[in-house]
């Protein structure tokens, strides 16, 4: 019973905190009008669907390869997005490179697909406004290659002194793409680390350390939050545990999945995500 109760409580708590965040994004004063929290549902539904899809992708891929995994644990947080994300825990070893590719890539691929849907729907609900209309608490989001293309395709060319005021759904899509890129960094036991180890084996050692060095440089020159992320990665570990069966050769389809995953990492990565 406990294996269902704790994930359910965390899920419901995160629904509440994302509703709160979504209402705040719309300028609702919840201290004066607490019952209007339900108006935060566009953001809450969007971000929860993206995160749930990502983690259930891992979960079902684990089931297919007979790897024991928990249900997703969501992390509620009193922040502008209402959550610190979600995760599942592996309860048994991953046996093969094929399983490592499938489990590592399925989550980000599902999350990526759902994030694109949210971006397309949300950008159609967004507005192009003069920068002078923004309030004092305004902050700008950095654009990935993909998000820039989506904005140009849906809203047309946007240049100073104008910018896009994202709808809650589009903001959830942006967060989904950002989370996808973070997970696909080929370091340690992140999703990207799983994929890199399955594709490149012992070269994962050098890839992992090289990317941490790049993240530190990004933290110095672009966004200080990368320094926190680099410290967390060092704490969690840069190496990958060995798998039990090392197939001589991966199938072409698995190699394509791995390469597509890294292409997604490139087009969704944002060197300076937040600009205050």
Report on the structure:
The chain is mostly helical and 276 residues long. It is built from nine helices and six strands. Strands 1-2 form a two-stranded antiparallel sheet. The protein has a two-stranded antiparallel sheet with strand order 3-5. Helix 1 runs antiparallel to helix 2, helix 3 packs antiparallel against helix 5 and helix 7 runs antiparallel to helix 8. 39% of the residues are buried.
List keywords for this structure.
mainly alpha, two-stranded antiparallel sheet, single chain, 276 residues, two-stranded antiparallel ribbon
Number of strands: 6
Helix count, per DSSP?
Answer: 9
β content, as a range? 5-15%
Cα Rg: 19 Å
Largest sheet: 2 strands, antiparallel
Overall average pLDDT: 91
The total domain count is 1
Distance between the first and last residues' Cα: 45 Å
Weakly predicted, low-confidence segments: none
Physical arrangement of strands within the biggest beta sheet? 1-2
Topology as a string of helices (H) and strands (E): HHEEHEEHEHHHHHE
**Outline, from the CA principal axes?**
globular
Secondary structure category: mainly alpha
Fraction of helical residues: 55-70%
Question: What oligomeric arrangement do these chains adopt?
Answer: single chain
